[in-house]
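Quick note —
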Amino acid sequence: MPVINSIAALQPEMQEWRRWLHRNPELQFDLPKTAGFVADKLRAFGVDEIHEGIATSGIVALIEGRGKGPTIGLRADMDALPIPEATGADHASETPGMMHACGHDGHTTMLLGAAKYLAETRNFAGRVALIFQPAEEGGGGGDVMVREGIMDRFDIEQVYGIHNAPNFEEGAFFTAPGPIMAAVDTFHIDITGKGGHGAMPHDTKDPVVAALGIGQAIQTIVSRNHYALDELVVSITQIHTGTADNIIPGTAYMEGTVRTFDPAVQDMVERRLSEIVAGQAASYGVTATCRYARGYPATVNHAEKADFAANVAADVVGKGLVTPDAPKEMGAEDFSYMLNARPGAYLFLGAGEGPVLHHPEYDFNDAIAPIGASFFARMVEMAQPVG
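Predicted structure written out below.
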């Protein structure tokens, strides 16, 4: 079965929704316009229940099917990013410094398209819970929604999500049984020395030299402290210090990201960072502290559900456009919290050629919205068939 005809016919309307969302980006949990837009559409579609204000601005909407059965959850993220837009599009962001640079406007649109179809047809047993989530971009909105009890409150038994993927074939699906995206942690290093004149370094305790030494030593965590076949990324992403070319500053600050799949590797990195920072600080005569913050856990698909999701995708786009055993990637996703709470799977949907995610020239490809909406709809119909 290809893309559902009635959803394909909805494409112009879905494009209007998506572009409205794109013009009106909002960040983290503060999504009054976005959540209001979504709730208004859901009411117009005639869904049975709309529960607002979950995790501040999240929504769970329920659609009853035909007869008794379980509840299946479908999730879309709604928040944008603090990036000035450079697309030049007619529907570009109207809020300075914010844009939908990750396609969450498209994800929301896909789930709205599925909602309209499912509310009209109800060709499934049980019910579907439509999860519109805030704060995927760093706020952990998925975690908050789970901690606020949506899985138990709405009796959700399994859950699925999609993310668009630029520079993969348009309309192609990618997923995998088991780990698909990494855990993400951050580290923060504060270095305190003794500042002074750049011409008299012997009278100082230079935090700049210490920061360089710490940075070099941190690279040995990947190259010398872990097994080469265990996936690991440790990247220093910020170093801040100094004010002038003839002043040795008194302090320096460093920050970075850690990506892992194995909790034992995660523990090792946290330990080695503290040891390296303390040892290097002592060798340079400065003081330094390392704060390690654990973030989103790894996104781990349930094998049976990932296989089923791949079959649903093949039903929509054909088996030749589905990769059921895609390689892991080192990005991170807070859908991981939902998969830790319930069985399910996460998939990528190819968006065709274009700027990468989080780029100021990125724009969601409206042509794939009916594909994603059809996947969501067929997921419900195939997972919970009538009779």
